[in-house]
Amino acid sequence: MTYWNEKAALVTGGSAGLGKAIARSLVSAGARVALVARDASNLRSAADELGGAARGVVSIPADVTREDDVARMAERAGSELGTIDGLFHGAGRSDRGEALATPVSRFDELWRINFVAAVLCAQALAPALRAARGHLVLIGSLASKSASRHLGAYPAAKFALAAFAQQMRLEHDARELHTLLVCPGPLARVDAGSRYDARAVGLPTRPAARAAASNSRASTPSGSPRASSTPAGIGGPS
């Protein structure tokens, strides 16, 4: 029997990608799961794929950047699941672009989906999570820890999420509410590497320094010592 057997969890961004993968693992562990996403059709498909009502999976369409939607989401989740032992906040979006060329409106958009949405969901579900001595799991990024070039408004929003997670840990004893920040790197998915092509138009595909390092390695005689290099893309999500 697993820890999550017969427990209940809510997963935002649960219709695709990492959110759906987390939900799949929770269902496999015996949990009842509420999937949350904006697109009702994709949400129903994901719920059906994970077993639907027969496996304790329900879908709740909601835009988690909107306070009224989040309030309705929390109310319905409580009605459908009863207790809520975990909130897995996977809703988010990456970006491409130079920081100075990124419009403030884009910063606002990424701020709301990557940071404000997490705060809204945590505040709405905190009473249920604290009653269950549950878990708040926030999906950050390597960009939450170290900003990379050409990620537009993404790192600034994810840094804020990391600060929120730290503040939650300091303000709430783990025996009352356990907060975890997960910072994955690039994810393996069908559209990995191409999801943000439209926003990456005009950006350098490889920094000049790495190009120079690559050329230097290529010209190094066989048997000579080679300098190590950081793998391309180490700081940015796919």
Keywords:
238 residues; alpha/beta; Rossmann fold; disordered C terminus
Structural features, described:
This protein is an alpha/beta fold and 238 residues long. 39% of the residues lie in helices and 13% in strands. Strands 3-2-1-4-5-6 form a 6-stranded parallel beta sheet, sandwiched between helices. The chain is globular and about 50 Å long. The two termini are 35 Å apart. The model is unreliable at 222-238 (pLDDT under 50).
CA-atom Rg in angstroms? 20 Å
CATH topology term: Rossmann fold
- The average pLDDT score comes to 81
Query: What is the number of beta strands?
Result: 6
Query: Uncertain regions: pLDDT < 50 for 5+ in a row?
Result: 222-238
Order of helices and strands: EHEHEHEHEHEH
Strand order of the largest sheet: 3-2-1-4-5-6
What's the CATH architecture name?
3-Layer(aba) Sandwich
CATH homologous group name: NAD(P)-binding Rossmann-like Domain
> What portion of residues belong to β-strands?
5-15%
Q: Structural class of the secondary structure composition?
A: alpha/beta
Portion of residues within helices: 25-40%
The shape, in one word, is globular
CA distance, first residue to last residue: 35 Å
Question: Treating each run of at least 4 consecutive H or I residues as one helix, how many helices?
Answer: 6
Number of domains: 1
Largest sheet: 6 strands, parallel
Any idea of the CATH class?
Alpha Beta
